[in-house]
Each structure stands twice: as C-alpha cells, then as structure tokens.
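Minutes, project check-in

Agenda point 3 was the complex the collaborators sent over. CS summarized: four entities, 1160 residues total, and the question is how they sit relative to each other. Sequences were read into the notes so everyone works from the same version.
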Amino acid sequence: MPVRRFYTLSGSCPDQVGIIARVSGFIAQHRGWILESSYHADDGNGDRDGRYFMRMEVRADSLPFHLAEFRERFRPLADELSMTWKISDSAVKRRVVIMVSKQEHCLYDLLSRWQSKELDIEICCVISNHDSFKALVEWHGIPFHHVPVNPDNKPAAYAEIRRIYDEVKGDTMVLARYMQILPPDLCDRYPGQMINIHHSFLPSFVGARPYHQAYQRGVKLIGATCHYVTSELDQGPIIEQDVIRIDHSDSVEDMVRYGKDIEKAVLARGLRYHLEDRVLVHANKTVIFR
Amino acid sequence: MPVRRFYTLSGSCPDQVGIIARVSGFIAQHRGWILESSYHADDGNGDRDGRYFMRMEVRADSLPFHLAEFRERFRPLADELSMTWKISDSAVKRRVVIMVSKQEHCLYDLLSRWQSKELDIEICCVISNHDSFKALVEWHGIPFHHVPVNPDNKPAAYAEIRRIYDEVKGDTMVLARYMQILPPDLCDRYPGQMINIHHSFLPSFVGARPYHQAYQRGVKLIGATCHYVTSELDQGPIIEQDVIRIDHSDSVEDMVRYGKDIEKAVLARGLRYHLEDRVLVHANKTVIFR
Amino acid sequence: MPVRRFYTLSGSCPDQVGIIARVSGFIAQHRGWILESSYHADDGNGDRDGRYFMRMEVRADSLPFHLAEFRERFRPLADELSMTWKISDSAVKRRVVIMVSKQEHCLYDLLSRWQSKELDIEICCVISNHDSFKALVEWHGIPFHHVPVNPDNKPAAYAEIRRIYDEVKGDTMVLARYMQILPPDLCDRYPGQMINIHHSFLPSFVGARPYHQAYQRGVKLIGATCHYVTSELDQGPIIEQDVIRIDHSDSVEDMVRYGKDIEKAVLARGLRYHLEDRVLVHANKTVIFR
Amino acid sequence: MPVRRFYTLSGSCPDQVGIIARVSGFIAQHRGWILESSYHADDGNGDRDGRYFMRMEVRADSLPFHLAEFRERFRPLADELSMTWKISDSAVKRRVVIMVSKQEHCLYDLLSRWQSKELDIEICCVISNHDSFKALVEWHGIPFHHVPVNPDNKPAAYAEIRRIYDEVKGDTMVLARYMQILPPDLCDRYPGQMINIHHSFLPSFVGARPYHQAYQRGVKLIGATCHYVTSELDQGPIIEQDVIRIDHSDSVEDMVRYGKDIEKAVLARGLRYHLEDRVLVHANKTVIFR
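CS then shared the predicted structure for the full assembly.
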C-alpha cells in the first residue's frame, strides 16, 4: 500500500464544550479527510481543572493548502481555545541524534529499524563517549562523533554535544543506553526532545545499577522505562514501560541479558510514539495516542 | 467521586469527509458536554470500502432534553450518513441472564463483581443444566432456573431458555462456561446479545477439550477468548483474548486450573466492553473502544 | 486422575559436593518414587557463600514407612548437611485463616477456589474488622469473627486475633486486602506464616494509596505483590508479582478496578506456592519451585 | 564474574525409582560439582508410560577427567537406564549457520547478540536466496553465501545448502525468516538441528501470510513460534512462543511491524535454550529446562 502523505495536528487546551466540533468543523470546512483522530479529556482526578488533548491525521492531498497556510488559518481558533499545538508533515523526516556508550543492543536495534525503513527518519549522527561503534555506524553511512567524557572535561564535552546537535539541526536526541548523566542545563535546553531508556521499571530502582538493586530486593519481574529527560534524574514524564518475568535462578548477569530485550523494545516503541507526535506531555505525565 | 449520568452514542457508517464535524457539531449545538469520544476509520486493508466507527459519552445534565428527544433529533443526521447507531442511558441498568453448567469460577467471579457494584447490572436470573449452584445464586437474591438438557429434550429445553430470556426481558446472555452447544436458530435469534467464553486462544483449538488439544500439541502459552455467539461454533466476532505461560511440567489438570484465571478475567473484560457499548461489530470483527 | 498421596520434602543448606546424591540416595534406598524434584544452587552473586535449595515430592505408597519414621531416619543426614528442612503430607489439609476488611474480590476468589477444591485446604475461619461478609462466609459453612479495630482498642483487638489463630491451630494467615497494619510483635510471632497482597508492584509505591501514587507518577503498568509479612511494612520476602497495562485514560477508579484482577490472581498463585511448600525463604528473598 | 567451564549432561529415559540417585551418585563419586540441575518426570497424562528427563551442569575443574573419559565411564549406567543422552563442553563453541531471505530484523538481532558475546557461538556463515545482506554480513567478518532459489533450480539449490552446511561442520541451522519451504529430505537429514521462527502463534495460522490470516479473523493478540523443523510444515516440536496485543486500529502492516519484535525475541530465546542443551524432545513435544 503506498503511504499517503498526511499532516498531524496535535495539542491540548483547557476543557470546555464544543472543542471537537470546532476543530473538526474547521477541517471539514476545508474538505480535510481525517485518517485518524484521538481525544482525551482529563478531569485531573479532581486535583485540577479539566484539560483536553487531541491528535488528528489529515490527508495532505485533501486540503486546498499546505502547512504554512494551515498554520496561519488555524491559529485564530487555537488562540481562542488557548490551545498549545503543533502540526507536522509526514513527508518531512525527523532529525535524530543517537547517543551511546559501550552497550550495543539499542544501537543495533535502531540501525536495523532504520535500515528497513521501519523508522523512516534521518539519523544525523551518532555521538559516543567511546569509539567502539565508529566502524559499524560509519559502515551504515552515518557520521560518528567520539566525544570522550571524563571528570575533568565535562563542561567542554557537553558543550561539544550541544554544538553538534545544534549544527545538525537535530529535533530528537535518543539516549540509547548513554551511561553518562547529562547536566541539568543541557536537559532543560531541549525539553520534550531528549528520550532516555532507563533499565528499570520506574519509579523502582532509580539511578545506578538497577539490576543489582532488583536482585537484592528479590523482585519477580524486571522492567525498562522510556521517558523524557528532565533536569531531575529519572523523574521525567514516562512514555512507555514493560516488564519481563525472572525467577530465583536468574543472576544479575541473566537479568542484564533479559533486560536488554525489554530495553530495546520499550525504547523503540517510545521513540515511535514521539516521532509520530503521539505523545502529549502535561504536568509531568504523558497522554499517548496509540 | 459521584458517578455522573451520561448517554452513550455509538455507531458506524460509510466513511466520508466531515462525519466527526457533523456529529460533534450536533452535540455542541445543544451544549452537550462530551466526556469521552473515540473514532476509528477502517480502510478495510484495501479489501473493501472504508467504514467509520464512533462512540461518545455525553453528560446527561448538559443536554436540554432526554433520550427520546435526542433520538428523534439525531435521526435525520444519522439517516443522511447511513449510520447504524444506538444511544443508551447510564442510569438504565442492563438486563443480564447468566448461563452456567458445573464449573463455578466464572459464576463466582461475576457474582463478586456484581456484589461490589463493579458490574452495575441487573442479573435477571441464572439458568443452568445442573442445579449445583441453586443455593449460592438464590442466597444472592437472584432467581435460579434449572433447565436440564439431555439428548431427548433439547428442543423443549432450548425453547424454555428462550421463554425465560424473553420473559425477563434480557438484553444480554452470558455463557459463563455453559457447556452445551446452543442450536443455530437460538444463536441467530439474539445477534450481538450472546457472549461466550471459550477456553482456548481462538482460532487454535476450536470445539471440545481445548486444553487436551493444547497439551497434545505442546504449546507454551494457553489462552481464552470472549466472543459473540453466532450459528457457527466458535467462529463469532472476537471481543477479547488473553494468554498465560505454561511449561512442560504442567499437566492437563494444571492447564485447566491456570485457564480458569484467564477465562474469568477475559470474560469480565469482554462483558464490560459489551455492557458499556464499547464493542462495534462489522464483518465478523469487532472495534473495541477501550 | 485420582490424586496420589505424596510427601513433600523441602529445605536448604550450605552448598557442597554431593548433596543431591546423598538426599536422593536416601530416598532411593527406601524405594521412594520421586514425582517431582527441584534444586537450586545460589552462589549469592559473589556477595555471600553458596546455598543449596531443594524440594521433592515422594509418593507415600512407595515408601515402607510413614512421616514420623521418615523424619527420624532423615534427621541424621539433614544434620550432617546443616540443612533447615521440613516434610509435609499431601493428605493433611493446611489450616488457613483469612483476614479481610471491606473489599470483597480476594475473599470471593478464595472461596470460589475452595468451593471447587482447587484450594484443598481447611479454612478455619474468616476474621474481619467489619461485619460485611458475615452472612456470605457463614453461608459457606465457615466460621466468621468480627474483630473491630479502632485507635483505642488495638492491643486488645490484635490479642484477640492471635487468640483465635492459635485456638483454631492455624498454620497460614492470609491478609486478603486486610487494610490494617499489624503490630510488629504479631508479625514476628508467625514468621513465614502470614501472607499479604499489596496493591502495587513493590518496591514502587510502598504504604497507603498506591494507586493514587501510581496515578500521580504516570506509570504505564500497575501491579500487585504477594509477600510474607515481616515487622517492616511492605518489606518482606516477595513470593509473586504481576502487572497490567493501563493508559492515560484510566482514572484512579479504573486502576483500582484493574488492580483487583491482578491482586486476586497474584494472591492465589502466591498462596498456592506457599501451601505446596514451593517457597523457600533465605536472606529476605524467596526461591519458588514452580 | 569469570565464566566457569562446565559440562552439560542431558538426556531422557523410561521412568523408574532411583534415577536421580544413580546419576547424581555417579557424579558425586568423582567429586563433580553440580552447578545447576533439573529433572522432569512426565507421566504422559495417562496416554503413555512415564518418561524421565534430566539436565545437569557440572564444573569441569571439579572432575578428575575430561569429556571423553566422562563419556566412557558414564555409558554403562546410561545403557542400564536405557537413556538417550549427550554431554557437551561449554568451552567448545557451537557452529551455527544462519539462513535468511530479505527481512533483516532477525539477522541484525542475532549479529548484535553475537557481537556482544551474549551469543557465544561460531557463526560459520550466512546463506541467503538474496544478496541484500552480503555487505553487512561480511563487514562482521562472517562468510556469506548467495544461493538463489527459483522454481527451476530447487534440487540443486538445496543440495548446495546441504553441501555448505556439511563443509563448515554446522551443528545448528537457524532459519531466521528464511522464506523458502525446505524439502522434506533436507528437513529429515538434520533432526533437532534446524530451528525455525514462524510468524504466528501456532497452531493458529499455519503456512503463508499469517498476519493476513490474523487480520481477517480479528484476533486481539498476535504471536510468534520458534520450533524445530520437521518434514511436516509448521508441525515440529515447539520450543518457545510469545504474543503481543493488537487492536482494531492495527493494519496488516502494523501487525508485521509489531510481529518483528516478537519474532526476534522468541527466536533468540529458543535458540539459546537449544544451544545450552536446555531442550529435550520427546513425542513431538519439548521439555525446556530454563
């Protein structure tokens, strides 16, 4: 089936009567063909006022205008609804920078999905504090940057990462088991752009060596969590999680091995939700329109 | 939190531009507050024309009229869209008849959920081909009908079941491990009203003794399937399924035991989807708006 | 299939060469037929010396003597191996006391399994701080004790619970969503006998209102944990855990509803492992021989 | 932790009293240190006589002799027990041949695990009916053979595959989404050596285009099955299976994408069980000693 070009409109606003009617009315008035649409009204469990979330895919060829004009025409309605929103074009590839350390499983997995076009993105480059994967990455035709990080050069190293990310015009940074803790100012600089995979079922086992912590506690399932990076370690909005069953016979090494399978699957799902604008963040939580 | 009374409008129609806009426009025009709304456009994977499915919950107290008038006012729009639709009132309890044989797990589970009001339904009666559960059911204040079925009395027995179901004005018949095969004419008489739990992951292991079949084949997971009953055995639209891991050490008896846990959970989820009008059937498949 | 009477021998000891050979040699020498046997050597992940765990089911009719004589004859070997061990007889029913508060799901589930003989135990009595379930429990022919607990009567109430448990000669106390925190001295009195079901995936969300905590954090899976009670709240050895997927549309009430299904399944599995001597505790962790 | 060299002894025999005692007695008599041991007695669910299965890992440095002498000394006991058995050495790498077509996900996944030494095997070569992965495979330093298969050259092509497999002294052939049906005589030539990943939850959806079949039936979970190849298509002994949840909004293409994640995880687990001699086959079923 040929893939149809479409625009994805997503956003959220304070809840009130008639939001769907007005937004879908705007699209219908221009004969826009909605391929997929999702809505969620969050009443905040009584803790706060209601908020309304939405996401729509509209066939590009059904509209009489392109993205720039869509934006201009939609803005007055969005303003009236106090909506935080964006619209993206499926024909424009997302620009992703991958950060890795020494573990290969997430990197291979992402390269495999990119190679088969399951992930239809531009991998601008891979950045690593080790050079182990230089040859592999370059063999795929992707630039590789070795940016060593050590106790003495941290500010310079992180400045270099920032420089590269800005230079390649990245819009998404994937920490694919990048084993360094990024400084708060770097985390805050790209809100909603940095995606991490943490090797535990958060909020259990925050921080270092989560499989050792899990082994000590004797849990019967281990997990992985894909989340946005914020300046607070492992506290950002959770995008996706999953677990796998273990038992008393599994050593820490076994857990690490099982864990890799969960980590790469969870990262891949979370990243896809992000790239397809299926994730809306509010109050440190995510709405995921699968 | 007090539960708010709401109307649930659900239906499907041939896909075209502007359906959401027109339906949500109708509701907004009457100041209807949409609590939850779901849409799905099925392009039929290229096999058939597109079809559009929708479900909305609207706060009853936000509308200036009641159900009868809603129906009357909405009908012209629905007709124009060639929509198959219905609307229901959360304040009107569904009328459920439960059919059981000798196994108790699904019955206890449904009674427990009914007792705690998790299932906020009217259990009109329980019908069984055995009298094992008479005292338990009646202790709960629910009428019990013993309708024995044997090779010689089948037409009379099924006529009696039909008579009871009609008399109590049932709108849903739950086959909670009712181990008799209902005759085709009875199945056809109440389309979309009869829900069965089959003790395998369909389409594997259709028919009798599925756990024995699973044991013979040496599968590593066993499952259960909740589906609408049609005149073809175990071929009706699937509502919900789940599986559980087994291994070589599990005997058929172990599988039966594990299977019970899956069966009752899958039946309870499937039944809830049905009772809340979350299931839309088309072409022997279901759309489930969770 | 008729159930065969068997003895279950389980225990653990410091690891060394030849343990299996000596224990199974002892049984073979008396022509004992081993139905099932499991072993585990824990090397402590380098943190401590190795420990050896074992469990065997031996057909009672294959041995030339009964339990008392088995114990006497086996003791010298066990002493030599510094083994902590026990042996039980499948023909002797375990004596279980169930503690509940106001939530019914675990109670109904246990009664259902008991009624069908899936749980082949003696339920000595049900104790509750409310009288909501008195009639239901007594209808099943099981004694019910209403022991109210309030800020002023705690010592007396817990003394009464202890008195009842001792009087009925309970060997297992199941806290089936008993919403009171038992005093440390009561917890310490019956080590390895008190089983709790906690409504979160421990160690996440210890303490009160775990579903509210889960809602606040925005996790994508919720869980339940069955564990032995120790004097430290929610810190005892974990027997069994499981999770279920939720999403942004689920309110705290939805989580509570989904959670019940996990709680009762996890409690039932954990309790069965315990009753069948499949759980061996060491260093606040469990070996589970499924 | 340094990995200790060990021998894995596995086998099965007709059940009788004293097997464990005699086998573990033999090992203890030579001061063999058992790292891990598993047993299973299958009473055949009443359908056939009992059979006994076992697997042990023994530290190589604890024994006073090497593999050849172990074999010679153990043979008389094995013969007496009518045991089918083998013993392998963890220091000897298994020799694996990977067969692929055009889909890359399983190949990348296996290469990634091999690269990181999670799979500590010798990949003798990759054989494909397409040359798409030649450069990737050779970049990893692994020989690649392009053996085109078309309606006219089948006998010659399969003879060539056999020749290569024999020449490299392969002991395991992995069909990593190799989309050709191998001829019965080739399947029969290497019993218990050929491992396939089928993209459905068998026995559902045998044969071609299982995701299309799943889409048509409207199932709520899709799966994958790792099994030994026999001359009957998709009927061999099942090693491992898993499933993933889908819903009405998933197209066949979505299922294919989700399915890949299950396929590679299931293949990797099944392959590991095979390589570590954790799989014992009997009567078209497997005992898996995890």
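Noted in discussion: The helical segments of chain D are 19-29, 67-80, 105-115, 134-139, 154-167, 184-189, 210-217, 252-275.
Follow-up: revisit at the next meeting once the mutant set is ready.
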